[in-house]
């Protein structure tokens, strides 16, 4: 098993850009992406979440760690259309236009198909897939009017691969992949790029609470490096996709994993 590399310092990949990240409180990929955006020199940042205290703490944490003053928080449940519209409108106003949207909000769980209720299936779909759609639908008119912008969706290797008790989550993430490809074609004529990342296993506190240690160890052992990814390793790829270095990429789903090798 290899050890994780040292944390990479920022290189101003997002200098002058404004960034909006959903589900960015706590210690997961969303927070790491928001932190990395600030470290990569973004001029302004807004993060959303459904947890007021964690959201407030995340905003303060990013300000303290990076020195970026223009960091804003906004409560948003992506399953609620009015909250999505309010978030996008607030971000457009406070950030003076959104250059980069990172759709990170998603919900998983472990349930076999025969035991899965309609409510469990619909909840995962509504947040993970339809939430990504709602945010993209609300954001695109602004970006299309400016003829510029980048949207990055958080998918999963389960959109490609099978895993027991993950039918709802895998179906939702496969949907995110397909949605990314189709919406990218529509946005391209306006100069807007839409891509996705597809992580396998990235360890953070919420995942540790939601899954058993044995399951996480087994999944990590299947990776080429024999370990789970650090959340910032996923965020690094998001930063590349958000930057001008990926200017000719759209409709792509980038595997941040060995599982497409």
Secondary structure layout plus pairing:
Elements (H helix, E strand, L loop, with lengths): L17 E4 L7 H11 L4 E6 L2 H15 L4 E5 L5 H14 L5 E4 L14 H29 L2 E6 L12 H22 L3 E8 L2 E2 L1 H6 L2 H9 L7 E2 H12 L10 E4 L5
Written overview of the protein:
- This protein is α/β, with parallel strands linked by helices.
- The chain contains eight helices and nine strands.
- It has helices at residues 29-39, 52-66, 81-94, 118-146, 167-188, 205-210, 213-221, 231-242, and strands spanning 18-21, 44-49, 71-75, 100-103, 149-154, 192-199, 202-203, 229-230, 253-256.
- Helix 5 (167-188) links the parallel strand 5 and strand 6 (192-199).
- The chain is globular, with a radius of gyration of 17 Å.
Task: Give a quick set of tags describing it.
alpha/beta; two-stranded parallel sheet; 261 residues; 8 helices
């Amino acid at each position: 098993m290899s050890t994780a590399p040292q944390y990479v310092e920022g290189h101003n990949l997002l200098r002058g850009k404004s960034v909006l990240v959903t589900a960015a409180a706590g210690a997961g990929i969303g927070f790491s992406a928001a932190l990395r955006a600030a470290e990569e020199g973004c001029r302004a940042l807004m993060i959303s979440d459904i947890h007021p205290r964690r959201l407030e703490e995340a905003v303060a944490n990013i300000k303290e760690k990076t020195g970026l003053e223009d960091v804003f928080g906004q409560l948003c449940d992506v399953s609620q259309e009015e909250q999505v519209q309010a978030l996008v409108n607030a971000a457009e106003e406070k950030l003076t236009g959104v250059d980069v949207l990172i759709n990170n909000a998603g919900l998983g769980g472990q349930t076999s198909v025969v035991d899965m209720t309609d409510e469990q299936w619909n909840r995962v779909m509504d947040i993970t897939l339809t939430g990504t759609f709602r945010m993209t639908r609300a954001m695109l008119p602004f970006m299309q009017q400016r003829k510029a912008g980048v949207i990055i969706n958080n998918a999963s290797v389960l959109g490609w691969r099978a895993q027991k008790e993950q039918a709802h989550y895998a179906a939702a993430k496969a949907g995110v992949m397909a949605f990314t490809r189709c919406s990218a074609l529509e946005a391209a004529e306006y100069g807007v790029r839409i891509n996705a990342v597809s992580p396998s296993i990235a360890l953070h506190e919420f995942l540790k609470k939601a899954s058993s240690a044995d399951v996480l160890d087994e999944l990590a052992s299947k990776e080429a490096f024999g370990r789970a990814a650090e959340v910032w390793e996923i965020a690094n790829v998001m930063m590349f996709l958000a930057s001008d270095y990926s200017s000719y990429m759209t409709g792509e789903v980038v595997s941040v994993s060995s599982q497409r090798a």
